[in-house]
Amino acid sequence: MGRKKHNWKARNIAEVEIDNSATKKIPIDIKYREDNYDNCNALVLPNEKRRTKSKVKKVTTTRLLSKKRRKQLEKVVEKKKKKLRRTELLEELGKVQAPQEELKQYVSLTSVQTKGLKRHFREMELPVKEHMIKSNNENEDNMSEVPVNAIKGSKKRRMAILKEQKVQDAVSDPNVIGFDEPSNSESESNSEDNEDREEKDAAETSEDNENIPSKEDNILENNITKSTVGEQEKSIENQTTISKELLKPQQPIERTPATFVVLERKPEIQAARLKLPVVAEEQAIIEAINENPVVIITGETGSGKTTQVPQFLYEAGYAQEKVIGITEPRRVAAISMSKRVAEEMNLTEEEVSYLIRFEGNVTSETKVKFMTDGVLLKEIQSDFLLTKYSIIILDEAHERSVYTDILIGLLSRIVPLRNKRKNPLKLVIMSATLRVEEFVENSKLFKTKPPVLTVESRQFPVTIHFNKRTSINYVSDALKKAIKIHTRLPDGGILIFLTGQREVNYVVCKLRRAFSMKNKKEIANKMKEPQKTNDSSKKEDDIKNNSDNEDKSDNSDHDTDDDFRCKEAIRYNKLRQKKKVQLPNINLDDYSVIPTDDTHEDLIGAEDDEEIQLDEDEDEDDDVIDLKACADAQPLWVLPLYSLLQSDKQARVFEPPPEGHRLCVVSTNVAETSLTIPNIKYVVDCGRCKTRMYDKVTGVSTYRICYTSKASANQRAGRAGRTGPGHCYRLYSSAVFNDQFEQFSQSEIQRKPVDDLLLQMKVMNIDKVVNFPFPTPPDTVQLQIAEKRLMILGALQQQTSGKEGSYSAKVTPLGRSIAAFPVAPRYGKMLSLSHQYDLLQYTVCMVAALSVQEVLMEAFNMDNDSRNKWLQMRRFWAGTGNSLLLGDPMVLIRAVGSAEYAGTKGRLLPFCDEHGLRHKAIVEIRKLRQQLTNEINLNIEDLNLTINPQMKPPADIEAKLLRQIVLAGMADQVARKVMPDEVNEDQDKAKWKYAYKTTDMEDPVFIHSSCVLRKICPEWVVYQEIYETNKMYMRGVTSIEPEWLPKFAPSLCQLGEPLTDPPPRYDPETGKVMCSMAGTFGRAGWKLPVMDVEYPLSVDGVKWFACFLLEGKVCPKLKQFVPSLLSTPQSINKTWAKLIPRTQEMTQLLLSRGIMSRGQLLEAWKVDKNFLLSAYQKWLPESAHGHVMLIWPPV
């Protein structure tokens, strides 16, 4: 305690309690201050000072125990614990102790010794009666005696229980030491004095407590009695409830027995299956699927999800009554997975089948069905509830393709619908990455969060090697790295990731040249120095034998890129130095910091000079490859892999390489997730991918080579760790990886036009697509532009001015017929219109060819003769006149027709090679033609459309109609040539020489040199698409006439008033009033020439039709009455005609029914024969009225 400060009493702010009892006794008549929340403004004031009482808060200070005292008390507690244990032990012994009656029958040795044997036997031989009397007397004595308790310390035990209860109540008190608290400084060496003193104290307290019946004893007894009574009551209640339950009629519980379908697998396949990580999770996966409608399974590629989960479900009985459906985003994966699963399950391809866009082997016996996600989407349109499926598995959901996103949204609604109908459908979403937040956290998608099961991947450690610098020429770097791996590192497959087909073919070509089969030079060297080779081979064998027994771990520094971190590699390198073979002189530190911005892509070739730069043949080869050093290396089995490659060539990567060869696969990102290539140990990752950048507003497609995402880079690296420890060589620095790589790639739905998606969903009666539960919704700009394009095509109804931003436009009948075809909406419109003029065979051929990418190959690596031959052939196919103006579509029609004819002769492959056609594309076009033909035959009765191999080229008039059909489908993709007088003086006139302008872009676009219309350069064209390389180029160009635009693109034309000079005229063929009009097209306001169009519905138009009717041009029978008319027919168009009743009556009648053509007038007369009779009679004198009545209607 410190010293008290000066005036502490006054400074102490104490609470004062005022005695206000006197004022409270005074009665007050009025209601005043009933709430009484403070004492201000009191009505009654006291006449004398009131008593006060200061409130003093009593602060109880609890002193903490000292260490010494704490130890003492701990010892006391420990001793009491021991005594308590002793009483418990005695009580347990008492339970097994023999009873007193039994003990009395035993004879002790001491009593026999004192009595003697004679007396003992005499007592034994006493009469029974006497013995009975004695025993009765003894029993009476025993009953009168108080029984002695053999177990001591029962009182102490009761006291200990009470103390334990007190201890539990006062746990928070720091002065109390609990029984359960262990003491760290516990020692057995206690002094005897302390023990005796403590025991005496305990004994005295116990004696006092025995004499006085304490309150605590009563509490304990009450508690015991209460508890026993409570237990009895509970037991009685339980008995009554059990009896009631037994009396109730028991409801039958539905018990579904666990089904298991036995599969007879081959032993080697079963052994391989057991090594997959997903097999260990089989029970957890099946239980989760059985208990939840939606399950998400994540696991790295190679864990066995795709192949094993369908087998788990088949064995669990999901395929007994219905089909197990598995969707894949790629056709290659669907085919290969179905074959693999069929082989593992030891079932036929009839039971485990696949169905992709153009082919499939699905039968009525199919139990497991692999398909692309587009196929399942088409099935939903015909069978919304997917009644033939018991479970749907969406595989590779991390790729986030457009169809996968739509399927997830649709199935999130189909699954609850099926559950309501007691016909449950299960949904399993499988993803290779852990990016599942968009599925799990999206409450709009799934109301209850689906469980997420993570499968550990069968992943061996992969060592990542970064470059010091990031080079621009990653193709050359990949080539160098592959050569170094092959010449210096131990056996193991190599997988090289590049961006596109051209790069893949370039690297494959170089590696095949460098590491071909043993060549003549090597044989000649061996002949010259046989002794050296023998010695060196012996050394090589010894070193290899030693190296095989050593550990192949990699523990060296990560900073140096040239050090390959392997003992075998170092020894192998020394051996090569002894053999005096020069290694390639490669400086991997020579890099540029600037990242790449190349713009080449698979399907669209860049300019010729760019191609030559990459292929500047031998000089570059000598810099990259030392052919002399590569001659002694092991042969390399180099295979390409990309999506446009033929299926049989793609399948070669799964086959083992020839004996003595190392496998090397040069691939695009196809091998990233979809396919698992066996025996890959080394991965070379360029870190880039080719992405189609799509401008949402202008529709320009640009293929850009940009950095891939971190998730994709990790997927690529994981390919090296499937069969054993591997290495991934990244051709970029760690700084670029951390700073410039995105975490995940953007979903496809956000970087693609959504026209087809929007139309398909509108056909499925999803009017407000903006409210659809997408995992990642598309941008509103995308939806806006797509809706606008579909309105231009006539697939959606034009919205009123108030509802433009509501995204709720309805589908037109034309839109429904467009959606029936499995092609883009613009091509669907072409097919819908072509039936009118019997052009279906040409339109089907043209649409199929336009839908498939890269039909005509670019002659980059060809010599000039071959290139000129191809171009000449294409110009010949284009023809002349309207056929030439049809442009690129005409070339495709002729090329596909010629290839079809060559196919019937068995010369399809040589024909394709000879004329620069891609064989896989031609095969795909034929499948699409067959599919479209079947679709048209189903929809149009009595039309036997077939694929005719001897289809003749379209005639000139047919080519003109095809041009109009192309315009109808491409109405929003019109371009106009820039005239020389339109180019400003400050602009470069050479740049704008062959330039065109589109409606949505300010930059000029050009016709590519490979286009057949390049030399003609027509003024008005339509194009299939615009792509960007070094310039903006149009692809699929067709020439059009501007006069056609108001008819085929009316919503984009702004026409002026009908011209009076020349005046309107009546067309007897169509029966319509025609007029001359001028106008503009598009937002740019391009001037259209003066053209003849149908007179729009208006008062003036009706007057002109009435004028021609009075003149007898509409109905020739009325010509006889023209001389008798009261006024000339032309007077109906005069300004003063309103004053004449007969002109007003005729005009009003025609306008009320909107009649402005002969056909409409005839329809009106079918309904009412006397229509216009009275109005016409007013133009004639009364003498002619009867004659007109006889011939009316004048048809």
UniProtKB/TrEMBL annotation:
Ranges of Polar residues composition bias in the record: 220-230
Keywords: ATP-binding, Helicase, Hydrolase, Nucleotide-binding, Nucleus, RNA-binding
Claim: Nucleotide-binding is one of the keywords in the record: yes
GO cellular component, one term: nucleolus
EC number: 3.6.4.13
Pfam families hit by this protein: DEAD, DHX37_C, HA2_C, Helicase_C, OB_NTP_bind
GO MF term set: ATP binding; hydrolase activity; RNA binding; RNA helicase activity
Cell cycle in keyword set: no
Sequence segments annotated as region (Disordered): 164-237, 522-562
Subcellular location(s) of the protein: Nucleus, Nucleolus
A Gene Ontology BP annotation from the UniProt entry: maturation of SSU-rRNA from tricistronic rRNA transcript (SSU-rRNA, 5.8S rRNA, LSU-rRNA)
Gene3D superfamilies xref list: 1.20.120.1080, P-loop containing nucleotide triphosphate hydrolases (3.40.50.300)
InterPro entries listed in its UniProt record: DEAD-box_helicase_OB_fold (IPR011709), DEAD/DEAH_box_helicase_dom (IPR011545), DHX37-like_C (IPR056371), DNA/RNA_helicase_DEAH_CS (IPR002464), Helicase-assoc_dom (IPR007502), Helicase_ATP-bd (IPR014001), Helicase_C-like (IPR001650), P-loop_NTPase (IPR027417)
Domain Helicase C-terminal: 599-765
Main location: nucleus
Reaction equation(s) it catalyzes: ATP + H2O = ADP + phosphate + H(+)
Residues annotated as domain Helicase ATP-binding: 286-452
Family: Belongs to the DEAD box helicase family. DEAH subfamily.
Protein name: RNA helicase
Organism whose genome encodes this protein: Bombus bifarius
UniProt lineage: Eukaryota, Metazoa, Ecdysozoa, Arthropoda, Hexapoda
Gene name as annotated: LOC117214365
